[in-house]
Request: fold
Amino acid sequence: MRSWTPEGRPDLRLTLGPLGRGPGDPAFRMTPDGAIWRAARTPQGPGTLRITAADGTVRAQAWGDGADWLLEALPGLLGAGDDPTPFTPRHRVVHEAHRRNPGLRLTRTGLVLESLIPAILEQKVTSDEAYRAWRLLLRRHGEPAPGPATGGPDGGMYVMPAPRQWSLIPSWEWHRAGVDNKRSSTILRAVRVAARMEEAATMDLAAATARLTVIPGIGPWTAAETLQRSNGDPDALTVGDLHLPNIIGFALTGALRTDDAAMCALLAPYEGQRHRAARLILLSGRVPPRRAPRYAPKDISRI
Reply:
């Protein structure tokens, strides 16, 4: 168990929310009592972490071989290494979101694969498809999380597979989870060099991006989505996203269509803090009106 009193009272749900991969994520849970549960594969082994906050004090319990590692990493997880003071809002919508969300901090897990693999699963598919694949793969090939999070009516929490376990998943299991050969092959290439991937957690943004994108199938979008979480990098802007440029453009200018180049130009005043600016814009709730039918996912597991 560990108690910690952070500066500024980070909002647990705002800060840790990006670690959850949709409803029913076997590795992440927010419970009605305000606790946040996280199952992770650490350098010391699998572990489960439960975090609560009251009166400015954070309390954490952990179980499993990775318990000590998770407790030691708690401050970074809650944004202790994130310094928001250099951030200066340049637009009214950003200023208002910044004012309304003083507890936002950028989490840093220090673990690369646990964010890289679900980011690969999210390539070129809907969120629902990717979340379903993550749930199925963890429940079928992961291991039950240590401690009291095991079992229960929802099947309990699971720690994601170790690199070798990922490599042993047969092709038909990827297919059953709705993961095409391109994404599964990218994951297999990444887990073969897992140690090299994990080293990116200690690198600056440029070096970490270069380390991840040397793997065929991992581009700037996937690298940014990973490093936002593993490294807590405030400038890791997601480029190549289907929706983000339009959201940024609409919030800042009212334009209904914006491409990546225009988005980057709009966020240029926030250089060094572009990911934080994008998070705040998303929290503002200003989104363009829907102009096209919702994309109908294609279930390859039935093909």
About this structure: The longest helix spans residues 127-141. The two ends are 48 Å apart (CA to CA). The chain has 15 helices and seven strands.
